[in-house]
Amino acid sequence: MNKKLSFLLIVLLFFLAGCKRQPADFQRASFERIISLSPNLTETLHALGQGDKIVAVSDYCFYPPEVNHKERIGGLLNPNLEKILLLKPDLLIGTPAHAELARKLQAYQIPFVLLPNDGLNDVFFTIDSLGRLLNCPGRAKQLLKTIKDSLSYYQALSRQIVKRAPGAALIIGRDPGSVRHLTVVGPHTFLDSVWTFLGGKNIFSDLAVKYSQVGQESFLTRQPDLIIEFKFKEQWSARRDSLNKIEWQPLSKIPAVKHNQIYVLTGDYTLIPGPRVYELARDYYRILRQYAQKPF
After folding, report:
1. What is the DSSP string of 89-103?
2. Is 19 helix (H, G, I), strand (E, B) or coil?
3. Is the predicted pLDDT of residue 82 greater than 60, yes or no?
4. Which segments constitute the Fe/B12 periplasmic-binding domain (predicted)?
5. 33-58 pLDDT, tens per residue?
6. Where are the alpha helices (DSSP H) in the chain?
7. 18 or 216: which carries more pLDDT confidence?
8. Would the pTM of this model clear 0.85, i.e. be above it?
9. Sign of the Cα pseudo-torsion (168, 174, 176, 178, in order)
10. Is 13 helix (H, G, I), strand (E, B) or coil?
11. Which of the four pLDDT bands, split at 50, 70 and 90, describes residue 263?
């Protein structure tokens, strides 16, 4: 039994211990009132054709547009337990970050499943697990094939142009208007795994944590070829892009700034490890293609 399947079964056994159901019964159960606690799970449920079973979502779920008509039960730090109970869900689905909420709800005997959401393989695992759990394995299998085919397509295109894996700094935050307090992406993360899948290199892949705030000296030491910033759902323009590149000038000695290789991704899918992962792969491929076309 692989590690992640063991993880899922442990979660099921732990949270169903007081539910008077055996694990086999849980697998055969039919769930009609689901609360989704994470955007990636909400998107996956809809992609599997199970959106009509969702009675509520977290405050951070906005895709697909149909979820805007769903009840909201708060976010990770402020879940509304009273509202959750009033909605009478027969299943809650979350990520490992929701373990504390799961413990609080254990006394109410509501089935609660936690699914990993760190890397690319977790996207596949979540789709497969929900397909089995909600009795739609065929739909899950087809969805997985579509996603993997798209990823393989962009990987093949990237291999044709990548002669040397460019080192990128993947950045999810910094002080406005400056290059202070840079928050970078480390290993074993969604953004890292898709980038390396396409042939790129994450210059912070040796960090001991998944995300970390680093200083400018780290960039001067590691010398990234590319800087990729994630500005989730921000309105972008050519003018903003130009101003953004000016903000990086204090680090003009690193190759990425020196050669104007600073890219910004704003899509609402970029930070959500869900079925739209192929769109992130497409964006990464476009960056690799632009980099490969430069004369340096």
Report:
1. -SEEEE-GGGHHHHH
2. coil
3. yes
4. 33-292
5. 999 999 999 999 999 999 999 999 99
6. 3-15, 23-28, 39-47, 81-86, 99-105, 120-133, 137-161, 190-197, 216-222, 238-247, 255-258, 277-292
7. 216
8. yes
9. negative
10. helix
11. very high
**Average pLDDT value over all residues in the chain:** 91
| pLDDT at residue 27 in the model | 52
Q: Where are the domains of the chain?
A: 3-136, 149-292
**Stretch 266-284: mean pLDDT:** 96
Considering the four listed CATH numbers 3.40.50.620, 3.40.50.1980, 3.40.50.300, 3.50.50.60, the one that applies to the domain covering 3-136 is 3.40.50.1980
- Burial tier of 206 (Cβ tally within 10 Å: 0-12, 13-18, 19+): exposed
Judge contact between 113 and 131, C-beta under 8 A.
no
* 149-292 matches 3-136 in CATH topology: yes
Rounded to whole angstroms, how far apart are CA atoms 158 and 115? 30
Q: Report d(CA 155, CA 172) in Å as an integer.
A: 23
CA dist 54 → 35, 37, 151, 181, 293 (Å): 6, 11, 28, 39, 46
Nearest CA to 42 out of 266, 279, 273, 281 is that of 273
